[in-house]
Amino acid sequence: MDIRVWLRTALRLLVIISAVAGLAVFGLVIFVRIVDVEQLRSASDSLGTYMQTLGGIYAVLLAFVVVVVWQQFNEARGFVNREANSVIDLHRIAGGLPDDARDVIRQGLRDYVAGVLNEEWSAMTKHDERVIEKVGQRLDRVWSAIHTCMPLNECQHTVYGEVLGRFNDLTELRTNRLVAAGAKIPIAMNVLLYTGAVIMICSMYLLPFDRFWLHAMVTGAFAGAVAHILFLIWDLDDAFAGDYQVDRMPFLRAQKALAHIESPTSPP
After folding, report:
1. Scanning 65, 95, 116, 143, which has the fewest C-beta atoms within 10 Å of its C-beta?
2. What sign for the dihedral angle of Cα 138, 143, 144, 149?
3. At how many degrees (to 10) do helices 44-93 and 187-203 cross?
4. In whole angstroms, what is the distance from residue 139 CA to residue 144 CA?
5. What percent of the chain has pLDDT over 90?
């Protein structure tokens, strides 16, 4: 992660955690002024059981969602890496086809990579289907060149079969990447997460403490920790936007690799 992105993320986290912790403590101040805390002491055992049960349920929910969004994020990153590698492989293998088909296929792949980097990447964060479809048409032109290609000998027939297989892999990986870009936590799950956070933080007010400052510290720390986890879930839920996002570097490397294949350097 770039140092500027890291600093921006750290600052944003600091503001969010401080704000949530401050609101939780402010709510605690109001609560202790309205409610007779001494009455809560007599029910401390029941309150402890309640907090243990509710806290356990919410902790399991948070852990489950964190694992899900992290797995989705890693899958999206894997799709991007494999798609970029597939472009390089297809570009290299197409060199064994007749010259006319080879040139069209290679130019189409270069245009596709440029389209992904310059147009489609930002379009995925905005869910701009028009731009995504426009970039996809560049692969359609590659398919047209493959479809009309006429191998001239047995060697080219073998290469042609390999090109067909690699193109199918490429289109499948592209589809997987786009699906991963659109995968989001359901609204009902988000409602459950944030409602549960509010209930858990407010439930901290019920715990009897002899010292108010200790009660405030525990409540603020708990609220800040929950806010941090929810921020992480929210940010990872969109794999191609936010502070933690899938890197474009595989496609940048692919772009350089395609240029290198087209213009190999001469040995000294």
Report:
1. 95
2. positive
3. 150
4. 9
5. 57
